[in-house]
Each structure stands twice: as structure tokens, then as C-alpha cells.
Amino acid sequence: MVEKLRFRDPDLAKRVAEKIHKIAPKEGTVKICHVCGTHEWTITHYGIRSLLPENIEVIAGPGCPVCIVPASEIDETVQLALKGVAITCFGDVLRVPGSKMSPLDAKAEGADVRVVYSVADAVKMAEKEPEKDFAFFAVGFETTAPSTAVEIINKPPENLSFLVSHRVIPPAMKLLVEMKDLSLNGFIAPGHVSTIIGLKPYELFPKHYKMPVVVAGFEPIDVLFGVYMILKQLSENKPQLENEYVRAVHWEGNTRAQEIMQKVFGTVDGNWRGLGTIPFSKLELNEDFTSYDAHLKHDVKVEKGVDIQKGCRCHLIVIGKIRPTECPLFMKACTPHKPVGACMVSTEGTCRIWAKTQTC
Ligand code: SF4
Q: Are 342 and 272 contacting, i.e. CB atoms less than 8 angstroms apart?
């Protein structure tokens, strides 16, 4: 089986898979949760689940930064676009459904919605057209938030403001651990996010919740090692924080990026689509930078959004309670071409990743 899965080193993968089978408990289920869209892509694309014993479940948590943007924040973007402000955003957020419209629907109605590859592109656009108002829809976890912060520190032109939808991962992991009916046994922590935040923010999981955490990289072998390391901790009854991704992640993380983020943003309670409000999980512009806040500048107000469309199970997908194939709309009413829920939009969304395996 391993040979068929295009591992860089199939022999090593085979040996790790064998070790996993040896160390896995013979009874009961072990549930390991990851919180990263790229991990889900690796796991699904390389068929990692098929290499594990049946009682070792690897589930996908809220690791897609686009999937968890609540409808109300999409609605704000749409509202702003329809008011005549040019919206700049990353391509994967374009088709995320709001309560009634996605940013792409607003574009179809004639609004000026432009895809950019970086915040710097949004700055350049605003500089080029000083007579026009622009807003950048800033979505993403700790990996992308520093690039937004850098541009804000560098004082972008006054005709550019920001709809900040950045979220931070550790508070969402805390929420998952505290969901008793989820019964998690360990976390594979996200490699990208950890390059920025380092390891310290995960310390509370083994200390306070007795929950093993292994930061893992994105090669299939990294994920297999991550699973093995968690099972080893469980077999020895020694929950701890370990770093499998030593080639990229260091204890203190990227301190410069952290400083910049802290200068520009503070954390406040934030709504996550399908998860509700998570304390201190959303980034908000600090007082010194509120002149760049699109809400204040353009008086954007949305009371409450409709996060989950009828029949959609995204609220269960983002906590790994069900698999995409268990949603009755999967690849019927909801496809990558015509997504109903947010998890089918971005290439980091669990439903979208699973859909790819059905179409390729
Ligand atoms: S398949 Fe579509 S409708 Fe179903 S949970 Fe996934 S995104 Fe939502």
C-alpha cells in the first residue's frame, strides 16, 4: 500500500506505519485532531488514514481560515462593496457565502471586487488610484496576519482601509479540548502557524488538559511521525509538547513577526463560522491604527449573519464530528463548482479537499 502512495521515502513511511500499528492500543478509539487545511490535504491526498489501524482516527478541526469566517463578516465586505468601495481580497475568499451573497455575487452585481496575491498588491492598487476608496479584506490565521500588520505599520495610503478578519488558533484548540463529546486524545498542531507563534502557546494542553501535542510539518512522513509521537506519549501516559517540524519551527517562533502583530493588533472575542464565539480569538486593530478600520471609516454595520445554509453540515465538519461524505449535500447540491457551504470553497476546506479526491 505505502509504495502506491508516492511518498518520497516509501521504506521509511512503511517502517513508521508499522511502528504505529505496533504501538497503537488494541482496544478503544484514539482520536487525533489536526487544525490545518494543509495537513488535511496531505492526509487525504496521500491516503494516510488508510495506513492507520482502524481505531486510530485523525479528524480535521477548524484549520481552514476561510471556512471559519462568519457570514456577518462576509456580509460586511459585500455591504462595503455595494457602497462603492473597491474590495481587495485573496482569491479563496471570493466565493465564500455570506447570508445572501458572496463577494463574487457582489462583483456580479457590478461592485468593484479585485483579487490580490498579497496585501502589498492592495497597497499598490490604492496608491495608483488615489481618488478611489479601497478596503482590504484581511483573512487568515497567525501565518498571514503579520503581512497585514507590516503594511499597516508602514502607513498605507489614506484611501485604503482594512476589514480585519484574522483569527488565532490556540483559543480554538482550547474550545475543542473542552468539548467533552468530541473526546480528543491528542493534537497535531499546525506547522505554518507554529513557525510564527512557536511552541509556548501550546504548553497549556499537556500541562492543564493532559493532552499530547505534536507540531508537525506537511510532508506525509511528517504527519505519520506526528501520529506515532502522539501514540507513543499516550502509551507511556506522558502527555507533552513535542516538535516534529524542527527544520522550520523553533520554541520562540518568529519573534519579529510576533512583535509586529502585537503592535498592530489586540485580541478580542471572535465569532467563528460553525463554532460560535471563542474568547480572545480574533485580531482587532489597536487604538493607534483605528484610522485604518473600514468599519469606522465607512460605517459598516451588520447585526447577525446566517452562517450555515439549509442542509449544510459545515458546523460539524469544522470540528471533525462528521466527514464530508456524511453531509447529504456533498457532491450533489454542493460541489467545488457550486459550493453551498464555506468548507467547499477554499482549497484548505475539508469538503473541498475531499471533493478533489472524488474528481481526480
Ligand atoms: S458538503 Fe457542502 S454543504 Fe455539506 S458540509 Fe460540506 S460545504 Fe457544507
A: no
